[in-house]
Amino acid sequence: MPSWKTFRCVTDALNDNLPDDAVVEAVQVSADLSSITLWTSTPGQVIGRRGSVAQMISEALNASLGMHIRLLIQEVGDPPDDELFGDV
Predict the structure, then answer these.
(1) Cα torsion 40, 43, 49, 53: sign
(2) Please, what are the domains in the chain?
(3) Phi, psi for 27 (deg, rounded to 5)
(4) CB under 8 Å to 8, separation ≥6 — which residues?
(5) Per-residue pLDDT tens digits for 67-83
(6) Which phi-psi region, left, alpha or beta, contains residue 10 (left: φ > 0; alpha: ψ -120 to 50)?
(7) At what angle do helices 4-17 and 52-65 cross, to 10 degrees?
(8) pLDDT at position 87, please?
């Protein structure tokens, strides 16, 4: 299980490198620290032009954790309408 130091490194890397209007809804860290998944509704802002923002985040994570981390960015989709309104 990842330690609090790992989560602190991840949040610092995100806060330092993400644009102010980019929103990450959830962060999932694998148990062996081989990959970190960012769940967002705006993946284009997290990835950046030609992957520049994602590359900066990845480099910051690699430097702070001292190992190669695979950064995955997943899009949070909109829920179907029937889930929003229930049985109408």
Answers:
(1) positive
(2) 4-76 (3.30.300.20)
(3) -125, 130
(4) none
(5) 898 999 999 876 555 55
(6) alpha
(7) 150
(8) 53
Q: CA-CA distance, 58 to 30, in Å (whole number)?
A: 15
Token code pair at residue 17: 């490198």
Residue 37, C-beta contacts closer than 8 angstroms, at least 6 positions apart: 27, 28, 29, 72, 73, 74
Q: What is the pLDDT of residues 30-53, one digit of tens each?
A: 888 889 999 998 888 889 999 999
Are the C-beta atoms of residues 12 and 63 closer than 8 Å to each other?
no
pLDDT value for 41? 87
